[in-house]
Amino acid sequence: MLITLNGESKEIPADASLIDLLALLELKPERLAIEVNRQLIRRANWQSTALQEGDKIEIVHFVGGGSLA
Amino acid sequence: MSDKLIIAGREFRSRLILGSGKYDTFETMEKALEVSGTDMVTVAVRRVNLQDRSQKSFLDYIDTRKYAILPNTAGCYTAEDAVRTAMLAREALDTNWVKLEVIGDERTLFPDNDGLLTATRELVREGFVVMPYLNDDLIVARRLIDAGAAAIMPLAAPIGSGLGIQNLTNLKILRQMITQVPLIVDAGVGTASDATLAMELGVDGILMNTGIACARDAVAMAEAMNYAVRAGRLAYQAGRIPKKLYATASSPLEGIID
Predict the structure, then answer these.
(1) How many angstroms separate the CA atoms of B252 and B25, rounded?
(2) Mean pLDDT, rounded, for B201-215
(3) With contacts defined as CB-CB under 8 Å, which chain B residues touch A65?
(4) Please, what are the domains in chain B?
(5) Which chain B residues are Cβ-neighbours of A7 within 8 angstroms?
(6) CB contact at 8 A, B27 and B56
(7) N or C: at which end does chain B have fewer Cβ atoms within 10 angstroms?
């Protein structure tokens, strides 16, 4: 199924959970946060959150920053 | 030495807070943090780069046992985005502290006061320790404090401009009138004397990024800022002499040879 991930279209298996998605992306779950359709999804719910066609996902982490310039 | 910076009940030895952006290399950033003596570092929240997973994690270069990590909402132009970003940061790092930025203009990066107030109220309601970046405006500062801000962070000059304190009078007024929460000067510091001047006014702390990260020798500048902030604080506590128009001799008037 097609989802939008960090602004880009991506094809992922149907019924994939967020945990499945992280594994697919080879991302370690530490110090990450995830939004699905602008809703923050708590880490404890990543396993149980089933993704759906058309979902917009943001996966963020920390980078260097003082203020944006 | 027990002159600590206290924010929301938490103590910090250093009155210098550093940003982590714009360094040449992560190694330089790491060294700069160390020689600056800082206890707290700001970080920004951004999308993971899904194409290039080989990159070493930026946070690997920040020893989280030594430094408190303060997520910021850099790049947010609306209260909604700032709140979203703060929530994401809290989830990712398990900290409810946030340096709040809601920007109103791309060129000056001056804050949007409405957005700032709205976001502060909502984040305070959500249990965050909110430290907003604002103009050196007393009325906005008071509103933010009423809304529950844990500190106020007025800018000295536009972010990254290196201009130093542009409105000394305003900052003096703010320092005198704001006593309920710490006052931390944020943005615009260019060199050591800018930091020292702010501390001599009696502000509680300074946050800077570009002034160090983009100096020709960032590590040397970080060390300079360490001294600068401490010197300014000591001078403030020491109580300076008054300014006089005419001379007052320093050596005794008796015993001069004829």
Answers:
(1) 56
(2) 97
(3) 19-21, 42-44, 46, 72, 74, 209
(4) 5-238 (3.20.20.70)
(5) 47
(6) no
(7) C
Q: How confident is the model at residue B218 (pLDDT cuts 50, 70, 90)?
A: very high
Q: Which residues contact B219 (CB under 8 A, 6 or more apart)?
A: B28, B31, B32, B35
Evaluated on CA atoms B52, B53, B54, B55, the torsion sign reads positive
Domains of chain A: 2-60 (3.10.20.30)
| pLDDT at residue A35 tops 90 | yes
pLDDT over 90 for what percent of chain B? Answer: 90
| Tokens linked to B153 | 């962070």
Q: Answer yes or no: do B53 and A7 touch at CB < 8 A.
A: no
* pLDDT for res B55: 63
Question: Residue B206: helix, strand or coil by DSSP?
Answer: strand
CA distance B199 to chain A (A): 20
B-chain residue closest to A25, CA distance:
B50
